[in-house]
Every structure is written in structure tokens, then in C-alpha cells.
Input
Amino acid sequence: MSIIKRYKNNPILRKDNVPYPVATIHNAGAVKFNNEYILLFRSHLLNGRSIIGIAKSNDGFNFKVSAEPFITPAEEGDFKIYEEYGVEDPRITFIDGEYLITYSAYSRFGVRIVLAKTIDFKNIERVALITEADYRNVVIFPEKINGLYVRLDRPHTGIIPWSIWISYSPDLIHWGNSKIIIMPTKYHWDEMKIGPGAPPIKTDRGWLNIYHGVFSTMDGSIYRLGVALLDIKDPSKVLGVADEWILQPEELYETTGYVHNVVFTCGAIPEVDGTVKIYWGGADSVICVGEANIKELVDLCLYKSRNPL
Ligand code: BMA
Output
């Protein structure tokens, strides 16, 4: 049996549930806000560029998409030239009374990460571009550690294979002291590239990091999900990386769509009963949810692990 239990009514959102014209709905950041579950998701427009929409739910399974998109490319100011080709793959972290949103901004100058903030999921304020080109998959930890903000990211450069790094910041704007923490493993399900998925989840045995890994085949790439556990006080210390994936494309809505054979996560919500709801995009076309037991994910990292580097 799979370690992630797919929700019986997957996919929970399809493009037909979006009240404006889109080709896809997928890759959602997720958070609880005032007893509601919020998803910020990526949609391709009918010109192939992406925007970010918002959906709300009382139970984490049945979502309603709001009438208007939540983030569309900036039309003026400093962000405009870096968002020209679209905005993608948002992650959400609640810290210091604010919801931080990190998303990919695409332009002719490459892909950069924008940090935005909201307190009400109605208005957003763009704060800064917090990477140069080329970075993706920035997830911010939900607590400061040793007085600093901490993030995981994935540089997107000529140096391969693309790996997961950690960086620190006193103010969320200036980041440094970067270290590589997890690298793809040769001849393994994640051998081509990996990247952080959901913002890390605090457990009593470490920070749980749900990430994606990619394997290249003659039929294109396969995106799967894996897990790693990082030390609570020093998250640059990897306590374990599970050798086995936790989710792979199997259902028709994951194997067929805008990009086939993709499960990709940007958000997961831990619950008080020790489970976690993991949200993923299926085939870059639909949004799915599944539940896992946090202890089982942690055990997989600790007792069935492979080398991080
Ligand atoms: C990555 C990103 C994701 C996407 C994935 C699979 O590079 O573009 O948004 O889900 O590819 O197509």
C-alpha cells in the first residue's frame, strides 16, 4: 500500500472549476487561514504563460476557486520586467503574523523568485526579488532558527545535477551562508534533478522536507515526490533522505495531461492528529490531495535512507 493515501474524489480541482479561461490548474501552495484551507495555484493561460489563482475550503478537500486570479504579472514598477513571461508555483509560509508567498517569476532574463506578503489573502504586497537568475523552488521555514530566517532552494544553473541548498537571512531580503544539503543520486528515481516542494514541516524528530525528484526516460521525464529529514536546530544537517519515493504518477490524471507523468507539490498542511494533507499537481493539469502519517514519513527518512550527497 502506498504511504500516501490518495483522496477518493481526486482530482479535487480541474480547469472547469476555474471561473476564468485557463488551460490548467495545478502546483498549489497550501495553508490554513482563519479555519479555512487556502490554495494558491498555478494556471496556464491560453497563451501558455502562467498566473496564480486562489481557492478556499472548509475541509481541505472541497475547494471553491475565487472569481479573480490572485497574482498576475506586475504591470508596473521594479517587478514588471521580471514577470513578463508569467508567475508560477507559489509556496506559502506563516511566520511573524504574516503569510509569506514565494513564487517563480519568468522573463527573458531567466527565472527569479519573488517574495510577497499577505495578511488577509485579499491584498498582496510584493516585497523583493530574493534571488538572481536562475533559481526555483524557494521554501521558507515557518520559524526563525538561531535568530535567522531559513530557506531551501534549487539553483537552476549550468552546474548539474540540480540540487537542494539552504540559505539564511536576517531580514528575508538578503540571503547567504549557502550550503548544498541534498543532491540527486545516480541511477536512482531522482537522478536528473531535485527541488524543495512544500515548506518544511516541524516534527518532534526534525524538519520534514517533501521534495520532487526527476528521472529521465526515453518517453520524457517522470516527476515523483520524496522526503528528507533535517535537524531541528541545524537544518543544514540532513538526518536522512528516504531511498524510496513517496508518490509517483499512477492514476490517469497524473500520467496524462498537459505534461504527462508528473506529480509536483508546493504545499502540505500538517494536522493535529499526526497526519498531513499533501497537495500536488497531476500531469500539470489538475490538483490532487492525499493524506499521509507524519511518523511514517519520518521513519522512512531515518530507517530506509540513502546518502544525501
Ligand atoms: C517544472 C516546473 C513545474 C512543473 C514541472 C513539470 O520545471 O515547471 O511547475 O510542474 O516542471 O512540468
Q: What stands out?
A: The pocket of beta-D-mannopyranose is lined by residues 27, 88-89, 223, 259, 262, 264, 281, 284 (CB under 6 Å). Helices lie at 252-255, 294-303. The chain has one domain: 5-306. The domain at 5-306 is CATH 2.115.10.20 (Tachylectin-2; Chain A).
